Amino acid sequence: VFSMLPFAKKRAGAQERGDSPGKGGAPAAAASASTGGALTPRSRAAKIAELRQREQELQDELRFEKLKCMIPDRVVSEGTVSPSVLSPVAGMDLRRLSRVALLPQPNQFRLSSEVLVILDESRRVPTSIADLLNDAAGREDKREADTPRAGQQPARDGFPDAGGVPPGFPLDRIMTEKTLRVVNNQTSHILTLQPIPPTALEAFNYVTDCFDKDNNVFAHDVDALYALMVPLCEEASAVLENGPMYRAVTSPCYVFGDIHGNFSDLSYFLDNIMNFRDMQFTPANVLFLGDYVDRGPHGLECVMLLLSLVLGYPNQVTLLRGNHEDPLVNGDIRHYGSSSFKAQCLRVLGDRKGTKIWDMVNETCFRHLPLAGDIDGKIFCSHGGIPRYAGGADSRLQKLRDPNFPHLPRLALFDSAPPHQLAWTQLATDLTWSDPTDFESTGSGLGNGFFQNSRGPGTIAFGAEAVDAFLENHGFAYIFRAHQEKSDGLRLSKSARVITIFSTSDYEGHRNGAGMLFVSHTGEIRLVIKKDDKP
Length: 535
What we know:
The protein is α/β, with parallel strands linked by helices.
């Protein structure tokens, strides 16, 4: 659409010269006749101003069309904007943009047959839903690097079943990073509809401004970083500690999987959904499924950015707890080495300050994160999957919604939890550590479609029978989960009812893509893939 702008200018210039874009130059002739054959300087200036205003309106209309083509599920008309993913650009009359209206929740959800693919300029690799179904094991049949637990080797997740999704689905559209930058460069204004806590704003500005995107490094002022992290943890804790362990979210909603310290991808996605660097201009909720730290280079900075969003927009941004939001995991320097969250805190802030911040993040923030949630009551969301079921009355989610459910400081050692907390801890561990399995005929069965998981003692895997029972018992249509690397950042399994989301690319050098989902207010689930951009 931007390539049409010269045409718009040419058209406006023709009108300014008195040429008609219509038939035979009639409008120009009429104008000339009404002024005795020539325009006076005053009338000519007025005409030029009118044409320039019309040119601006044409450019605005073209930009709206650009946005409508680029992002799915958009309805834009004079004075109204659907609660979708609108990105207003500089120069538009913001009076045309209305406040987001509350729309009724959709009655049913469906997977879109189209995939939005973001490619680097040099790459043109198509991806469709069929590719996601058939490419579960990763490129070149490499073992997927799932997170080990208790010293166990990673489990190979296998190939998904492709039932229910026919092959040959068309692409939505291929959008290059250059195209995104053209729009994003015009949305650099910072506007605020409502005041947000100063700590949230200062932390957000600090961590985004000191990031060198080209070299993927930070230029830290250690004293300033520490001075911001302490109140950020304290104020975010006040928001999180009184929250439920089960969080209900409404559409439209973006859904992210594992981040694992990849600030580059996290900021890339947020730059393209946060209009004017302010969530209040993003008419959608944002849900993160956990695992914000470890394995990537910038876990501390990712935590700072995400906590600033939770503090600034607590009703719009939701962070779920993953298995790495646990001091027994993110403090395991022996296993994760320099990529562990604790090691990064010590390296950036020094031993004393680093230990304090690592402890504060775990004790005042991570332990209070919800363990699960849903979107519009129809899509169940957790980091790992679904909890085990022994049959009979299904009270799994009822227990999770219990206001007395404790905010557990640790999850990994659930088998040594105090007796009065054993049931709570096992439920929390199932939600954060479980995986879907495709080897139901050969696995060690626990009953009702659950199996032993090779991640370690006490962890479970769930099969099609378990998925069927959970969806039917609780009225869900889909399960969104994270927890496992996928070659394109997304994977559909269990007849496309379980969707795995992994939102960090080039994970440990594996050249995988990063994925995310957008659930529209119409009930359509759109898949977005950012390809690995390394040559």
